[in-house]
Every structure is written in structure tokens, then in C-alpha cells.
Amino acid sequence: MRTEDVSAGLERGELIKGVLRINPKKYKEAFVPSPDGSADIFLDGIAARNRALNGDVVVVKVLPPEQWKVLYQNSFCFERAYASRQRPVVIIFEQKHSRAASGFLKFLPNKNFAMFSPVDHRIPRVNVPLVDCPADFVSRPGDYENVLFICRITHWPADNNFAEGRLAKTLGQAGEIEPETEGIMTEYDVDFSEFSEEVLNCLPQDLPWSIPAHELSRRRDLRKECVFTIDPATARDLDDALSCKQLSDGNFEVGVHIADVSYFVEEGSVLDQIAGKRATSVYLVQKVIPMLPRLLCEELCSLNPLTDRLTFSVIWKLSPEGKILSEWFGRTVICSCIKMSYDHAQSMIEAPDKHFSAEELPPCSTNHRIHEIKEAILNLHNIAKQLRAQRFESGALQLNQLKLSFSLDKESSMPQGCYVYQYQDSNKLVEEFMLLANMAAAHQIYRTYPELAILRRHPPPQSKMVDDLQEFCDQMGLDIDLNSSRGLHRSLNENLGNDEYAAARREVLTHMCSRAMQMASYFCTGALKDENSFHHYALNVPLYTHFTSPIRRYVDVIVHRLLAASLSELLYLHKLASHCNDRKTASKRVQELSSELFFAVFVKECGPLDSEAMVMGVLDQSFDVLVLRYGVQKRIYCNSLEGLKAVHFRKVGKRPEMTLVWEQADPSKESTQQVYYPKQLSVC
């Protein structure tokens, strides 16, 4: 179909454009979101996708409603009806998938090519020429049965289920952390190469670097103020700092000070181009793939203690209740007096009357007493509690899921243990002021550049999914209000009982509610005409952006530039926002896969692990559980359970129910039965 025909079809509503989502557990099923946010569009079978891969932007043809059919998709573990408008993809509007995959080689006798089978079944099998394979692959194919390779698809004929491609690299043994990690990063198009000499030449060459006198004269000098950082203990890229002092009138001067990355990353430079392409740092379990060279991330931009650093600051005058009385934005210079961990700050919050000695804390500037720092943290904590309460009272929603963390061997980086990360009051303190700074930056740039501001929007959840989830909760006797973000937040925090499994029910329902949510995304205000669509659903605020992490997010660098001066091209900003969305999504998925990989290796090396699990949902031959000790979701397939004699599945009304019949070691005893169903989210 010609480009002009596609454009005309989209305008008439005969064609629909959207991001293709392929079911990872049933790779023959794919969906495109409906523009009105109602039921998804279902694409049945690989041929219907017209060679599009997961994440590609595709255009599909809308058939007359009388040709639609209803598909029942078991999601949220209850029947969810899609108005299925089954049809093929007309064109791939934009290839988002990297067309690279990790997988295994299979020898095919009497063929001049081998078969590459991707680990991700959503990617087709690929014919690769034997010349790409290892020299002894034909004579010793068995040696490579467990070896991971990287393959890139070069062509996929329209009349063939198999694609054509070339082997790019031999990774190593499957199941080992480094080969698996490289495979994940390659598939998600993460640039983990070393920075080129051309890029490094953009950095200051005369080291150690000091702030030029003329730059100091242009900035507000805050080096004598009590400014400090609070970060994870292992953090090396410190891009935000805080300050707080009480004024004579009883109010507070509170500052958020962000590393001035834009000073070092000159717009249009090679360094700027590579940072824009990477768009985000990628945080794996064992390492970080930085957006910027380490000299910037960990040295010149990082707000390291006892060192003069360039910053972009927002400083408020706040009442004790957190009301903003005045606000100032500008470029500044600071000298952080101490690098505190979340645990250090938490210890002060938990023991406000304790006298902390120098030995209990990291090195501290002699210009500021420990008592002064503690008072600042306690004041920030008290204001943060007020801000947080006001946010949730105003309708904000937080769906925090359990985050699995690992302790690693210092030599091998192999997992030695795992635990659920504890989110403390010190984390909440920092979060509240970062949110406040991001909202302030959003209003500032939108007020000044209404057509050029880069903001972050979060649409409300899809109405069909909300209705289905509400129906499910009602059937299960769960008192959940999904009519608004405020109602949902209150339900999750107040209506789930106080027995020993209340927290587990809350975690399971948080997972299920998260599935109904749409993704937040960056956008240029000139590309959306309806200001109501700028709204951020979870935060329940009209304007929001990212300003506080320019070391690891390129959008923040642009926001810093917008705060300092106007940019010119609307189309550039729209494409930039789209690219940053893609890289942020890929980064998040890579981070999740890295955690899954380390957990699998940990279980393999240290398992088996015992933990209670809560049944989230039941299918006919499998059931989904949340492993309570680790916050990990798993699908349990009945045919993989040892000692299982029989499986009986039925529906009681719309509620699925599964009975497992187990063999007894003593034949004289009757078989035992377990009944699983998501009524009150049963425990197994």
C-alpha cells in the first residue's frame, strides 16, 4: 500500500495505527491497542502480523463491525472479552524491534544453511548460511547444543514462515550470566560499546578539572550552604542533592540541586549525539551501562562530597505544612558536605534525639556540624510527610511492587543471596522533593515555551480492562474502588484486611492493577493540542516532566536546556520524545530480564528455595503464583509437577477452579487433593 493511501486511510478511520504487542506465552496471538482505549484489536496467527515483530508500529485495516467476533482472553485470571477485529497488518509503519536475537543453532543435513531458534519465541526461526557458523559446526554440531549465538534478521520473505539472517556473534554457554546478559542487551538494542575517542575528546582534557572563574561569576554561589546527597550506598553517579534551613519566620528554605550536565554536554556535539541515541543509562544487576562517559557520570557531574560542582537548582520557601510560598530556578554552584546513604538518613529519622558521632557517618565537611545535617534531614522528613499525605489526599496513586535485590560475590559477581529491597522513610523523603522539583520544572518550561516543552504524561487505564478487573474483584469479594486513582489507592491501603496475608493480597492486587495501567510517556506539548491529555494519572497532576536525573536520562538534559533557553524545532522535539520513550521501555525490560537471569542462576546454584506462594490466577493446565518471599511471579505448568496424578479444571460461574490430585507414597492411602482458585487469592 502506498504511503499516501495509508495516510488517507488513517484520516478516514479505515486504518488504525498502533504498537504491536505479541503474547510472550502464546506467540501466535498479537494485539494492537484500540485508539479509543476500549477492547484491543486481535491478530490471530503469525501470517496476520505480516512479519512485524513485538514493539513495531503497525497499521491494520478496520473491517465492518458485523465481521467482528468476540475472543475470550484469560487475563487477570478471569474471562476478558476483546472485540476482536481479526485482520492482517497492512504495513509496518516503523520498525522498533532490533531484529536481533539470542538463540541456538540446529544442524540441518544436506542443507547449506543452519536453523537458528531464538530464545524468544515471538521472533521467527531464521535460516543462516553455514559459512557464518563455527568451522567445526557441521562435523560436531552436538558441541554447540548449549551455546548461545546472536543472529540478526536481514530478510523475511512474505511467503515464508522462516526469516533469513546472519550470525553476528558467539556468546558462550547458555545459563551463564555474561553470555545471557549480552544477548539480552543486543536484542533490546542497548549500546554497551566503549565510548569512542571522538566522544571522549569532547570532555575536559586538563585534569584535575576546576570550575572556571568566569563560570562561577555567572552562578548563585551556594558552596557555604549545608547541602548533602542521599543515595543508595553503592551509588557512584550522584545527580541530586538537598538543602534545608529554617528561616526566622518559621518557614523553610528548601533546595533541590541537580547536576548541571548540560554545561558539559554541548548541544550538537558528538557527545550530545551519542547521549541522545542511548537516551538512558541501563541498570543491570551486576553493572550499569552509562549514558555518558564515566568521567562525567562519576567525576565531573557527580555531586561528590567536599568538591565544588555545577548545578541547576530550584529553591522554595515552604511553610512547615509544605505550602509553596515562593520559588526560584537558576544555575548554581554547590559543595556537598556529606554523601549519605538511605540507611544513614533513615537512622537519623528513627532516632531524632540521638547524638551521632563522626565514626557512624561518612566523611563530613568541617564547615557543618553533624547536628546541623541531622536537623535538616528531620525537617525535610517532616515536610515530606505533609507533601506525601497531601498528594494522596488529592488523588495520587502509587503501585509499588516488590523489588528483588541481590548480594554478589566481589570477585565473580555471582549471586550469593537475594532479598526484597526495603523502601524506607528516607527513600520517601528524597522521592517527595524530586517529584516537587519535576512538577515545578514542568510548569516553568510550559509557561515559557508552551509549544516546545518536553513533558511526561500518563493516560488513565484502559476502560475495558478496568471494568473487567472491577468485575473480578467484585466476584472475589474484594472491596476495590477502581473509579479513580484516589479510590484505588485507598482501597489497596485500607480495604484488604489485617490478617497475616493482607500484605500478600495487596501485592497480588498491585500486580493485577499494574497490568491495567497504560505506560507513561514523554511528549512535546506542540504535538498535542488538548491540554487535558497532558495529565499524569498516577500523580494526578496537570503537568509533569523529568528534571532530576540528567546523568542517566537524556530527557532531563533537554529539560535543563529548556529551563535555560529556548529550543527551536518542534519536529525534532517530538521525535526526541518518541525515541526516549523507546529507550526507556527497553531499559526497563532489560533491567527486569537481568533480575530474572540472576534469580534463575541463584536458584540453580543455591536452590531449591522454599516459600509460600499466593495463587494469582488459574488456567486449564497451569496457574500463576506470586512467590511471597521474593516478590517473583511464576507460571506453574501442571505437567511439570512431580507426583501429580490428575488435574480437574472447571468454572463456577465465571470463577476458574482447579483441583490437583496427588499420588501417595503409600498405595493403601487415598490420593490427596488441593483446590486452587483466586477467591480471596488463595495461598499454596
From TrEMBL:
Top-level taxon in the UniProt lineage: Eukaryota
Database matches in InterPro entries: Dis3_CSD2, DIS3L2, Dis3l2-like_C, NA-bd_OB-fold, RNase_II/R, RNase_II/R_CS, RNR_Ribonuclease, Rrp44_CSD1
Residues that coordinate or bind Mg(2+): 231, 240
GO biological process assignments: cell division; miRNA catabolic process; nuclear-transcribed mRNA catabolic process; polyuridylation-dependent mRNA catabolic process
Keywords: Cell cycle, Cell division, Cytoplasm, Exonuclease, Hydrolase, Magnesium, Manganese, Metal-binding, Mitosis, Nuclease, RNA-binding
Any one Gene Ontology cellular component term annotated for this protein: P-body
Keyword Metal-binding among UniProt keywords: yes
Domain remark from Swiss-Prot or TrEMBL: Specifically recognizes and binds polyuridylated RNAs via 3 RNA-binding regions (named U-zone 1, U-zone 2 and U-zone 3) that form an open funnel on one face of the catalytic domain, allowing RNA to navigate a path to the active site.
Subcellular location: Cytoplasm; Cytoplasm, P-body
Sequence similarity: Belongs to the RNR ribonuclease family. DIS3L2 subfamily.
Main location: cytoplasm
Record protein name field: DIS3-like exonuclease 2
Native organism: Cyprinus carpio (Common carp)
Purpose: 3'-5'-exoribonuclease that specifically recognizes RNAs polyuridylated at their 3' end and mediates their degradation. Component of an exosome-independent RNA degradation pathway that mediates degradation of both mRNAs and miRNAs that have been polyuridylated by a terminal uridylyltransferase. Essential for correct mitosis, and negatively regulates cell proliferation.
Swiss-Prot/TrEMBL cofactor(s): Mg(2+); Mn(2+)
EC code(s) of this entry: 3.1.13.-
GO molecular function: 3'-5'-RNA exonuclease activity; metal ion binding; poly(U) RNA binding
Domain RNB: 219-569
Site (Important for catalytic activity): 239
